[in-house]
Amino acid sequence: MADAAGDVLAQVCEAVFDVLDQSAVTLRIDAYSDFNDQMPPDITSAEAWLRSRGFTRGEGDPGRRIVFARTDETGWAIARAYAPWSIRTALFDADDVNVATLDDGGRSVVVDLTDEQASLLSLALGEVASLAPLPEPDDHERP
Asked: Are 113 and 123 in contact (CB under 8 A)?
């Protein structure tokens, strides 16, 4: 991950986390990256820590869908720092509705925002990225 690109991806991920700070109460993160050879030591340590938490489930792939509640300050902070490197990070509200998915370290982001949140995110992103609304799903489309 080039430095300039990495800075942009970190800014995108940080902006999404910041804007959804009051509504996102749970996250699920994959502790896998396409950029292992470029990770700084603190992110490599974060990845190892996240996977160790995944092992505590006792089932499934310990690096996939590692869950943290917003109340777990340490887990949330480590996952947030790792998000720009992760292949997938998803944020959920109190009703377990997915409010954001950041794929490939923030290269592809889908966020369910209010008008106010969209304005805040657009402001936070500045010139580095733009928002494009998705069409409302048709009643006949699969969710």
From this structure: no
The answer to whether the pTM exceeds 0.70 is: yes
Residue 6: half-sphere exposure toward Cβ, Cα within 13 Å: 14
Task: Output b/e per residue, 60-96; b: 16+ Cβ within 10 A.
Answer: eebbeebbbebeeeebbebbbbbbbbbbbbbbbbeee
Q: Where are the alpha helices (DSSP H) in the chain?
A: 3-19, 41-55, 73-82, 115-125
The backbone torsions φ and ψ at residue 130, rounded to the nearest 5 degrees and listed phi first, read -125, 160
> Rounded to an integer, what distance in angstroms lies between the CA atom of residue 61 and that of residue 54?
7
Q: 25-82 pLDDT, tens per residue? A: 999 999 999 988 889 999 999 999 999 999 888 788 999 999 999 999 999 999 999 9
pLDDT in tens, 89-101: 999 999 999 999 9
* Cβ-Cβ contacts under 8 Å for 41 (sequence gap 6 or more): none
For residues 90 and 40, give the distance between their C-alpha atoms in angstroms, rounded to a whole number.
Answer: 23
Q: Which residues pair with 103 in a beta bridge?
A: 88, 108
